[in-house]
Every structure is written in C-alpha cells, then in structure tokens.
Specification:
336 residues; 5-stranded mixed β-sheet; mainly beta
Length: 336
C-alpha cells in the first residue's frame, strides 16, 4: 500500500571540507574534534566532505587547503592539528573561499584533549568563520558585489533592528502664512517629541518670528510679529524605507505683537497683548540620514480663536489667523 507524499524541492548546498590528519600525521590527528565540527557544519546546512590530508610542512599544508577548496568548490576547508602530548595549543588552518582568506590560529586548550575540548574547538572554528565573513558588510566601490550563498549567509551575524528613540529634539524654521493682509513671517521653532506606545507621540513646540512682516495702510506703517506655543499629538504609520510620515492634531496659544509709527508725530502702535487660542492639524515627513539624525519637513494648517486683528492708532490695519498655515523644514535629532 502506497500513500501520496509531497516531494520537497532539492536545495543546492554549499560544501565544507574537513581535512583529516590521521593518514599523514597520526600523532597530530584529532578525530573527535573533526566529528564535532562536521556536526556543526551540517547543522548550518553545509554538505561536509572528510578528506585525508597528505601534506606535512607548513607551506604544503597551506597549498593543500587552497587546492581542495578550489577543486571541491567548497566554501571553506579546515584542518585541525592536535597539540603534542603535554602541550595545550591546537593549530587551526582555515581557507575561506568567500572572503579569500587563509586563517591560521593557535588556540590554547588544556593538555587533556577530550570531548569537552573537541566541542570548544568546533565552536571556535565556526565563530572564526563568522568573524571573517563580517567584512562582507563593508561596501567595496571598486569591486563588483559578491554573491553570498544562502548557507554561507547564515554564518553572518544579523544585527537586531535598532529601537526607535524615545525623545527627539526638533530644530526647524520656515514661514508663517496668514490671510487678511499680514505678510509672510520668518519663523524659528524648537520642539521636543516624546514617543509613546502604539506608534503615537506627543510634541511640545515653541515658535518665534525672526523676520517681521511690514504692514502699510493709509499712510500708517507698522511691523507684525508672533510667538506661539503648541502641544501636538501625532500618529506615526509604518516607515517606508528611510521615510517616516506622521499625522497630528494640536492646540496652543498665539501671542501677536505689532509696533509702528505713522506719518504724523505723536502716533504710536496699539499693542495687542491678548493671548489668542489656536488649533490645527499638521503633516510631518522625516528622512533619516542616520539612526540619530534626520531631515524634518512639516506643514501646518489652523485657525485662531478669535481672529487676530492688527490695530494702529485705534484703526484696524490687517487681520491674521483665519486661516493660517506654516511650512517648516529642519533637523530631528534623537536624544535617547
């Protein structure tokens, strides 16, 4: 009786060669360590070939490893040379085809080369291969990118994704735009953003006009400035590559200020010291240069309650605040 089965697709597996020492140099052979190393390689997905070594001298052993790596198309070839009786240093010879390196190391172990020492040596060999493969992370502009087989890629440690920062400093500047005859103001902003769970954040933001607006009406001339303080709550969708969008709602206070002089002596600007409430929405777009520094772009649209009225000598000169908007750009710096 036969049952239908799903046939798994075969996978071309990379080869790792272990060069045995028993045939040429029996006192230096360490079969237990070779068996443990073969087991570790198979666990990583390699096909393991155990080939008796013939070379005795240092140069001959080096050439033999290189020859076996090339002829067998192996990812690496490894030779373990057991220390002489009473000594505690094992020799490791590794030819790594991927990074094109010949590694030679002497590792100190206890004179009693038992099962525990065999396990340690096998693990150290795998870690040495991981270390040599780390250079594959470094870009080489002068050479074509190397194609790393999947089974070899498993040896390369994967860096865990960095956690998003909890507190960000926002430094940005731009323009404050309003209806009613008030010119565009140049603004400078400083903000602190606290990240919350579930992709939300709270931002405290202070703004100050560094370039005033000039108002001229019926022979009356004045300058107009604003200061503002807002508290924003924002939702951060999943980033798209290096780009991080955010949508937010907020409320705050706008402090308008107007000063000027008329064409006739004795006239002065009546200051509007009333605090004006405001609410708005904003869209942020962030492009990360590095884990700590990013370019920041923001567009805000809002309304003031009540509308800001610019007066000069008890005469209305302009309106500002309904609606108003801000376009800002700058840097986001992650503090921690």
């Amino acid at each position: 009786m036969s049952l239908p089965q799903v046939v798994a697709a075969t996978e071309v597996r990379e080869v790792a060669v272990i060069v045995g020492m028993e045939a040429c140099c029996e006192p230096e052979s360490w079969s237990a360590a070779e068996r443990v190393l073969a087991r570790e390689f198979r666990a990583l997905g390699f096909t393991v070939l155990n080939i008796p070594g013939r070379a005795t001298g240092e140069r001959a052993r080096r050439l033999e490893l290189q020859d076996l790596t090339e002829t067998r198309s192996a990812a690496c070839a490894v030779r373990i040379v057991r220390p002489a009786a009473g000594q505690g240093a094992v020799e490791l010879w590794i030819n790594d085809r991927v990074t094109r390196k010949m590694l030679f190391r002497q590792l100190e172990i206890s004179p009693e080369v038992g099962d525990r020492e065999a396990e340690i040596i096998a693990l150290r060999i795998v870690e040495m291969l991981r270390a040599s493969l780390l250079e594959l992370r470094l870009p080489d502009r002068s050479a074509k990118p190397r194609v790393v087989p999947p089974v070899v890629r498993r040896l390369i440690p994967v860096e865990p994704p960095g956690k998003p920062s909890r507190l960000d400093l926002l430094l940005h500047s731009g323009a404050w735009i309003s209806s009613g005859g008030v010119p565009v103001l140049g603004m400078l902003h400083l903000g602190l953003r606290l990240r919350l769970p579930a992709s939300f954040s709270v931002t405290g933001d202070l703004g100050l006009s560094i370039l005033s607006g000039d108002i001229n009406s019926d022979g009356l001339s004045s300058t107009f400035d604003v200061s503002e303080a807002f508290l924003w709550g924002a939702w951060h969708p999943a980033p798209v590559g290096r780009v991080e969008p955010a949508l937010g709602l907020g409320a705050g206070v706008i402090l308008p200020r107007a000063e000027g002089i008329s064409g006739e002596p004795g006239f002065s600007m009546k200051k509007d010291d009333t605090r004006v409430g405001a609410a708005g929405c904003r869209f942020d777009l962030v492009w990360r240069f590095s884990p700590r520094v990013a370019a920041f772009f923001s567009v805000t649209a809002g309304f003031a309650f009540p509308e800001i009225i610019v007066r000069f000598a008890d005469r209305e000169v302009a309106h500002a605040g309904n609606p108003f908007s801000e376009v800002l750009a700058g840097l986001r710096i992650s503090l921690f």
